[in-house]
Amino acid sequence: MTYEIVRILNMITNPHYLCRMIILHAISLLAPVMGPDVTCNKLLPIVINSSKDRVPNIKFNVAKVLQSLVPVVEQSVVDQTIRPCLAELSEDPDVDVRYFASQAVQACDQGYRDGLTQFGVIAQPGWPCKWSICHPCRATHDLAGAHGCG
């Protein structure tokens, strides 16, 4: 990652909650472009740590960002990292945090194929990989419509 991106991501510790929300939004936009490795190693830990924020708006935005990361990362990451964080957010005292966490859990439960459709990537059998904007895999989708480049 470039120095500028790292510097921006470090602003997640800013005392102003709106700045932290902007960083979370930036992560949701960067993740598909940066790919699964950078997302898992650099971006996801920032999001997971933000789930402990005292501001409910930050926490429900964490749930939204985690939902957006589902099609970017492997299923094992969803099961081992994203789901437990969403489960914790689902028990938050704030009703909005619980709502968005439950929505994200439902997106995880719908599976990878439905997650792709929900996030605007409609996979059709034999179509070129819709993620080619993120990485040049040039894969095609299998009969179930799942992303074929792993």
| SSE pattern, N- to C-terminal | HHHHHH
Strand content: under 5%
Structural class: mainly alpha
Major beta sheet summary: none
Query: How helix-rich are the residues, as a percent range?
Result: 55-70%
What is the radius of gyration computed over CA atoms, rounded to a whole number of angstroms?
16 Å
Indicate the overall shape.
globular
Termini Cα gap = 22 Å
Number of helices: 6
The averaged pLDDT comes out at 80
The total of beta strands comes to 0
Are there runs of 5+ residues with pLDDT below 50, and where?
122-150
Task: Report a brief summary of the structure.
The protein is mainly α.
Question: What does it look like?
Answer:
- The protein is an all-alpha fold and 150 residues long.
- The protein is built from six helices and no strands.
- Helix 3 runs antiparallel to helix 4 and helix 4 runs antiparallel to helix 5.
- The longest helix has 34 residues.
- The C terminus is likely disordered.
What keywords describe this structure?
150 residues, mainly alpha, 6 helices, 62% helix, disordered C terminus
Task: List strands and helices in order, with pairings.
Blueprint: H1 3-9, H2 17-50, H3 56-69, H4 75-89, H5 95-109, H6 111-118
Helix pairs in contact: 2-3, 3-4, 3-5, 4-5
